[in-house]
Amino acid sequence: MKTVIVYKWARNAEDAVVRNDGTVDWRNAKMTAGEDDFAALEAAKAIAEGDELIGLTIGDGDASWALARGVLQTISVTDASNLTDNASTAAIIVAAMRQIGGVDAVVIGDSEEYAGVPVALAGQLGWPAIAHVSSASAVDGRVQVVRKQGSSEQTISIAAPAVIAVSAASPEKKTPGMKEQLAARKRPVTKLTLAAIGAASDDKVSSKGTRLPETAAARIFDGDPAAAAEQLVAALRGEGVL
Amino acid sequence: MAGEEAGEIDFDVIVIGGGVAGAVCAYQLARAGKQVVLIERGEQPGSKNLSGGVFYCRVMEQVFPNFVDDAPIERRITRNVLSFLNPTSHFNIDYWDQRLAEPVNAVTVLRARLDAWLSEKCEEAGVMVMSGVRVDSLLFEGDQVVGVKAGEDELHAHVVVAADGVNSFIAQGAGIRAKEAPQSLAVGVKSVIGLPRTVIEDRFNLTGDNGVAYAVVGDCTQAVAGGGFLYTNKESVSVGVVLRLDDLEAKGLTSSEVHDHFLQHPAIAPLLRDGELREYGCHLTIENGPRMVSHDVTRPGLIIIGDAAGFTLNTGLTIRGMDLAAGSGIAAAKTIVRALELGSYGQQAMDDYRNQLDATFVGADMKTYARAPEFLEVPRMYKEYGLLLADIFHDIYNHDTTPRKHIAATAFGAFKRSKMKLFTTIGDVLKGVRAL
After folding, report:
1. Do residues A134 and A143 touch, judged by C-beta distance below 8 A?
2. pLDDT-derived band of residue B1, with 50, 70 and 90 as boundaries?
3. Neighboring chain A residues of B133 at a CB cutoff of 8 Å
4. Cα–Cα dist A32/A12, whole Å
5. Taking CB atoms and an 8 Å cutoff, what residues of chain B touch A178?
6. Could you give the residue ranges of the DSSP H alpha helices within B18-150?
7. Burial class of residue B54, CB neighbours in 10 A (0-12, 13-18, 19+)
8. What is the percent of chain A where pLDDT is above 70?
9. Rounded distance between C-alpha atoms, residue B38 and residue B345, angstroms
């Protein structure tokens, strides 16, 4: 199946520091792929089953992330920025996919940060979409996925073309070795522009600032366990809890 | 020589470790038109590094002519404070000089930013930066180093440069270094405390991008051999302690306890008041660089640079590592360029590295300060001398209506009360004069 793996290349939100005044300091945040993207890539490889697998990213990101992980060619929409509006992001992906043409499945990380992108993508493409997927494969020309439903696992079969959003259950176990990184350098990277694919980087949503959520002050009772327990009980009585 | 036929080589040079030494060496080689790969264990260069000192950065002008303006530096150090710290007093030598900024001589840096920038420069120059790869071992053909192995993968090169830091498993694996004894090593514990720019400038009497660096000795380490440091960044203060491992163990303290004690010290806490903890980390560091560097630093096809070779100098007044790392990286690159031109990578070709080092400040300073670690082993440095200085000045400034004495008599009186022996002290002074 001709499969597109859409990966994010952006500053890692986990490296950002939220200051006491609620502002976010991004200066030490490293550029990285989304935390679900490697799991999505594994699923995409299984769906492609040796057929064409194309990496797609928005912005001038490091294509070697995908190329060192077994993707043989990538496309970047270099002048598209990291948008807050998930529907606009999906529109750019759709425009790039039209350039590729003949896609049977698009696989994307099911990230909390950009939760709206997979569904907006499916909506604009008019394709079925399944989210929270843990693994996928191609069976008899259809996409078969497994997703977690509470404590059980559900297996679903979807007619292609389809949008599959994959959640990673654990961090990536094996990062690319030296030979894979070396091979990645020799693989093709196609750079497209918004104008070339007929899309616009139009963010309809804008942030008006950030602040810390209001939290009740915490009190810590430590030291001798018996004395600490007594203090806790006294405090709970004082607050009218007991 | 085996392993050198065309086709078997993936790169001219493999550099292991993306710190200052490795990046500078790789950059110089790429600029000379060589095929270089820089292999970094961390997710990206800088993610594993921690420095506890200022960067005496003039050497970087040899590599990046506009280093101070182009690189992500924090502040330019124009004020140096040497502080003898006691539990309830301190005696500071406070040296400010605008000439230290003309030209800029020392800067503070945050390694996560500086190393990432160096890595970008390397890539621009044509170095392939391979992150997230831990080199497991060297590849040998006979006694010739011909490449590296990481997991199942092998890469071959004419020369391998080990810039893999203080623990250098590569140098240990090559049989050059044994596991260091605890008295040659120290542990550094550092906090980065965020403060608004204006607060830093007001609190430390700074203007613009100028900064201050403190070297502290005494109660900062609770008399453990080692010292405290504090220096200003743009919007944060880096502060911490470096503790000699054997003495820390002997005194029954933990490094985090000593670190916390220093930050809460009445002479230090007000400088950090209302700050926000941004980073906290610890790292092993070298206590006796000159002894480590006196080992051989090459093997056929292998050169060791930076901390991996032991290029660190603690003189008590200055703590240096990054400038020596850069200098050793430049020296190694010169040796390798020559070796590649001659097509000769044996021991004799690698031996040129020592000559290159000795022709610069790196080799010279390692010799000049060879006795500094011995001087810093004087236990009185960490307690008695600080107290003595404070006692002398207490006698000078404490006007308690008793008749005053001449300063020499005051100092001698304080010395007598300290119960230190005159000959021991004269011995320490002579040791200091010879070592520094």
Report:
1. no
2. very low
3. 175, 177-178, 181
4. 6
5. 39, 130, 133, 150-151, 153-155
6. 20-31, 67-70, 111-125
7. buried
8. 100
9. 19
Q: What is the mean pLDDT of chain A?
A: 89
Cβ neighbours for A88, distance < 8 A, ≥ 6 positions apart: A200, A201, A202, A203, A204
State the average pLDDT for chain B: 91
Which residues in chain A touch residue B10, judged by CB atoms under 8 angstroms apart?
182
Return the pLDDT at B2.
39
Compute the nearest-CA separation of B413 from chain A (Å).
Answer: 46
Structure ipTM over 0.85, yes or no: no
Residue A209 Cα, gap to closest chain B Cα (Å): 19
- Whether A179 and B153 lie within 8 Å, measured CB to CB: yes
CA distance B87 to chain A (A): 26
* Portion 92-121 of B in contact with A at CB < 8 A: 110, 112-113, 116
Tokens 């300073």: give the residue: B365
| Token output for B280 | 């906290």
Range list of H helices, B211-320: 245-250, 255-263, 269-272, 289-293
**Cβ-based burial of A240 (10 A; exposed 0-12, middle 13-18, buried ≥19):** exposed
**Interchain CB contact of B128 with A (< 8 Å):** yes
Residues A202-221 pLDDT 10s: 778 888 888 888 877 788 88
Binary contact (A177, B10; C-beta < 8 A): no
B276 Cβ under 8 Å from any chain A Cβ: yes
Query: How far is CA B227 from its chain centroid?
Result: 13
Residue with tokens 């996928």: A136
- Over residues B357-415, the pLDDT tens digits come to 999 999 999 999 888 888 888 888 888 888 999 999 999 999 989 998 888 898 889 88
Domains and CATH numbers, chain A: 3-197 (3.40.50.620)
